[in-house]
Amino acid sequence: MAQSRDWVVACNNRMRSSKPMKILFVCYANVGRSQVAQAYFTKLSRHKSDSAGIAVNQLIVQRRLASRKLKDVLDQRPVAYIGREFGMDVSERERQQLVPAMLDEADRVIVIAEKERWPDYLHEGGKVVFWDIPDAVGQPDDFTYDVFRQVQRRVERLVEEIG
Question: Under CATH, what is the fold of the domain 2-162?
Answer without folding.
Answer: Rossmann fold (3.40.50)
